[in-house]
Amino acid sequence: MSTVQITAADVNKLRQQTGAGMMDCKKALVEANGDFEAAVDLLRKKGQKVSAARSGNATSEGLVSIAVSADGTNGKLVALACETEPVSKVEDFRNLAQAVLAAAVANNPANAEELSAITLEDGRTVAETITELTGKIGEKIVIQEYANVSGEKIVSYIHSNGKMGVLVVFEGANGADITEAGKDVAMQIAAMNPIAVDKDGVDPATIEREIEIAKDVIRQEGKPEEMVEKIAAGKLNKFYKDSTLLNQEFVKDSSVDVRKFLDNTSKGLTVSAFKRVQLGA
Questions:
Q1: CB atoms within 10 A of CB 217
Q2: Which helix (H) or strand (E) holds 270?
Q3: For the chain, first and last CA: distance in Å?
Q4: CA-based nearest residue to 80, from 48, 36, 112
Q5: Domain Translation elongation factor EFTs/EF1B dimerisation: where (predicted)?
Q6: Secondary structure of residue 151 in the 3-state scheme
Q7: What would the pLDDT profile of 89-145 be if each residue is shown by its tens digit?
Q8: Half-sphere exposure (Cβ direction) of 250: Cα atoms closer than 13 Å
Q9: pTM
């Protein structure tokens, strides 16, 4: 049993240091016999236990954050996810999302694993900081997605609810100001959710599946067998038009596809890659 007097000031000091709740801080100080470092470790261990206990929980809420370099050649996207919408609006959660994004910008990690291992200013890694906030808030928090893209010109878009973000890599701008056109294309990606930039970016397994589905439908409609291949090819082209970015009708002007819209904006302008992330999708 502790013989050390735990004061309200001690509890508040530990709370300020860790962000944990008052009762949790008091219990940790009592258990640690007033040793602040030991109490911090106890709180961190509690966070780790909470994180493990909730590891199977769905994380459909959260916040997507994006940073594009000043020269527009690199973009980073971090989707920090949690279980419920109220937590996504908590100041500590939002501050953590910004801290993780800042760590990504400063250290240029290639993937989420590298990002999680970065040490922040307070000496804790990103992963440890997430675990501690998990313990404080009491629900699962994870880096759901991380993207690091580079190219001639990067344009970004974040949906108004903060749960969807897009990074688009443009090539062939040749010095032209494509800011407005770039935003239009990023919003097109957000709205229409293409599966690839162009036909050659579609997974062969997806193409094969679409062809087989089309053939089955055509046969069920009673079309002659000699026409099946030709009709299926037409349906595949319709699939490309609906599902690949450059072949989609441009949302703001259905008389042109996105490829033509970009070429009209600046001769040779095109998209080489994009990343679309939506929490709760």
A1: 13
A2: strand 270-278
A3: 50
A4: 112
A5: 76-280
A6: coil
A7: 999 999 999 999 999 999 999 999 999 999 998 899 999 999 999 988 889 999 999
A8: 18
A9: 0.82
Handedness of CA 121, 125, 130, 136 (dihedral sign): negative
DSSP 8-state assignment for residue 125: B
Q: Scanning the structure block, which residue is given the tokens 């993207």?
A: 147
Nearest to 152 by CA among 64, 266, 278, 240: 266
Are 157 and 187 spatial neighbours (Cβ–Cβ below 8 Å)? yes
Q: Do 146 and 160 contact (CB within 8 A), yes or no?
A: no
pLDDT at 194 over 60: yes
Contact call for residues 156 and 166 (beta carbons, < 8 A) = yes
Cβ-count burial 147-180 (b if 16+ within 10 Å, e if not): bbbebebbbbbbeeebbbbbbbbbebbeeeebee
Amino acid in position 38: A
